[in-house]
Structure formats: C-alpha cells, structure tokens
Amino acid sequence: MWESKRAAAVPGSVFALMDAAKGRARAAGLSVIDLSIGSSDQAPPETVLDELRAATRDPDTYRYPLFSDTALLRTAATRYLDRRFGIKLNPDTEVLPLIGAQEGLAHLLMAVTDPGDILLLPDPGYPPYLGAAAVAGLNPVPLPLHAERGFLPDLDAIPATLQPRALLLNYPNNPTSAVADQAFFQRAADWARQRGALLIHDHPYAELTFGDYRAPSALEAGTAGVVELHSLSKTHHMGGFRVGFAAGDAAAIAALTRVKGAVDFHPYLGIQRAAARALDLPDEVGRAGAATFQARRDALVPALRELGWQVAMPQASMYAWAQVPGLTDSVTFAVRAAEQTGVAVSPGRAFGARGEGFVRFALVQPPEVLRQAAQRLATVTVT
Ligand SMILES: Cc1ncc(COP(=O)(O)O)c(C=O)c1O
C-alpha cells in the first residue's frame, strides 16, 4: 500500500539468491570464500584514521556542516585532480563533496534530468545505476558492452533519433574491469555535447590500476557538459566512511548542490578532513594499495586459465570478469558454485542482460585464498 511507483520501479537484486546460497553452504559445513562483494578488505592509511580520530575530539566538528565548511575537501579535491590529471577546476563552483559516488549519482540524475528523460547506461553495469534511474523516473536505455570492442560502447550505433539527456560511463569498469583511454573519453564527450546530453563518468576505480597503467579522467576532455564522480571507497579503502566528490560542469554541480541541499547536510566534518588528508597523500600510497590487488589478480587469473576458464587479464579495478565454463547460465553456475564449494562469485546476469555468460570475481581475498577458490570451482557440477 505504501509503495510509490518510483519505489516499485527499483529493480530487485540477484544478490539475495547468492546470500541464500552462501547460507546453505555454511549450513552444510563448508567454509565460504566470498568473492561476490566488491568492498575493499584493506584499511585506510593510518594518517587518514589519525585525522578522523583527532576530529572526533574537536567540538567544532559536532555541528551541521555548511557549504562553506566543505572548502577544505573541495580544495583538496581540486589539488588532486590537478596533480593527477592536470585538470584545473574552481573549488567553489566545480566541485562538491558526496556521501559516496552512489549517493552522488542518484541525486545528480534528479538534479539534471526530468522524469521520462532517456539515460544511456552501460550493460553490463553497476546494478544501482538502474535503481538510481528508476528513482529519478528516467527511461534507461542500455548501451551494450561487448568483449570484441573491449567492453567500450559503440557510440556510432546509437540511433540519431534517440535524444538522451545523459550518458553514463564507468572506466575502469565494474564488472568487466575494462579500461578506456583519453581518446575514448574525448569521443564520448564530443558525442554527448553534439547530442545535448550530459556525460556522467563514474570513476571510483581511478587509482586501482596495475603496473604502469594509469586511468585518465573524462574531465581531460573539458568540463563543459561533463561531470565525474570520484570516491574514496576503493582508492583509499574508505567505503564505510561514505565520502567522495563530484567535479565538472558548473551548472550541473550547482543543480546537484541545490538538490542535495534538500536532502542532506554534507558528510561529517571529521570525515571530510580525513578525505582531504587522503587526497593530499603522495601517489605512492595509492600505488601500494593497488599493488595488493594486482598481486591477487596475478594469483587468480592464471589459476582460472589453467583450469580452462576464459578470463582477460585486468589492467585495473578489483575484479576479474570470466566466461562461465560450458553452456551454463551465470545464475545457475554461481548458485551451484556457492552451494557445492562455498565459493561465492557474482553472476554476470546481475549486471544486466549482456552480463549473461560471465561471472565476476571480486579480488577481496589474499592470493593463496584466491588460488584455493579456483581449485574448488574446478569441482562444480551443474546438471
Ligand atoms: C562503478 C561503481 N560506482 C560506485 C560505487 C559505489 O561507490 P561509493 O562507495 O563511493 O558510493 C561502486 C562500488 O562498488 C562501483 O563499483
């Protein structure tokens, strides 16, 4: 009775099925290796935690944070974007703290679109994208990401008659772990500008890159008509702190500020101080964190390949995207794998129709546990 059409339109999640399967594995006495959730298992840098500890003892942090109080984090964010990508932004008009990128996206869509507008979004893609589109009353149009194109959308294939209000992209990508170069972002920004759409780039894996590979920013293509969402969740292992920032087109940031003014009061000042400290850390700190995930990739991917799995070697992110062996559908495989071996992975179907045929491994366990997970998966039977 008390469900709005908006609430009813938020899609349910396949993850409930996985939870139940993990429960059955535990009940059967199996030890569960949970690789189904992309939450970092690392700790934030100690200096970041010190900043937060000190803030909790400072009574000035106990009040509601006003917009003017966000200056510290806004200026740290602009320093980071300049240092890392060479992008110079005005901290007063082109940057806004978020309570995580996920919150930011949901409110950004409400701020820059109207009900019924078309949102182009990746398929497969991060599942909350569809929920955010539903809450904003949008008409989501999936952009297929295919392995043959490196999981980049074919913008030329989008019919000229379609009039999207926004184009949502995410590289390094969840779930495929694909990456995009600067030339791609330039093409996407040009395309969006021509079509009168806002390019929204969700960038939580900006620093989770391996070897010499460094991820570009969509803002390198200019800020007009582009907004990028950054997060401290993965890059600084601060997922539970709920903090990130939006950066880019001043008009879109102003609209987002207005909408957020109606629903929240900015992150706790202590968390803003901790996030500002994190963003000012030298790049080597982020590289060291990324190396942990690289070592896990180097354990899991060869182990899966030895067992005959087809899986690309990711250059970034905290995932491996692997083809389901045989002709089994991804949900059946993931449920059976959890029930029979205790290894929980995410079925590709959970990320959209084009995710079918794949499963996603989150690299959230040490290398030896990942190797053990691969060995266990070799024994799964699906008939
Ligand atoms: C693509 C993508 N966007 C956003 C998020 C959530 O970021 P945050 O913790 O900043 O809300 C995730 C988390 O897994 C993600 O994979």
TrEMBL record:
Keyword line: Aminotransferase, Transferase
Question: What are the residue boundaries of the Aminotransferase class I/classII large domain, all occurrences included?
Answer: 32-377
Give cofactor(s), names only: pyridoxal 5'-phosphate
Q: Any idea which GO molecular function terms this record carries?
A: transaminase activity
Task: Tell me the Pfam families matching this sequence.
Answer: Aminotran_1_2
* InterPro entries xrefs: Aminotransferase_I/II_large, LL-DAP_aminotransferase, PyrdxlP-dep_Trfase, PyrdxlP-dep_Trfase_major, PyrdxlP-dep_Trfase_small
Q: Transferase among the record's keywords?
A: yes
Q: Does the keyword Transferase apply?
A: yes
| SUPFAM superfamilies, A to Z | PLP-dependent transferases
Query: Which PANTHER family does the UniProt entry name for this protein?
Result: AMINO ACID AMINOTRANSFERASE, ASPARTATE TRANSAMINASE
Q: What is this protein called?
A: Aminotransferase class I/II-fold pyridoxal phosphate-dependent enzyme
Q: What organism does this protein naturally occur in?
A: Deinococcus navajonensis
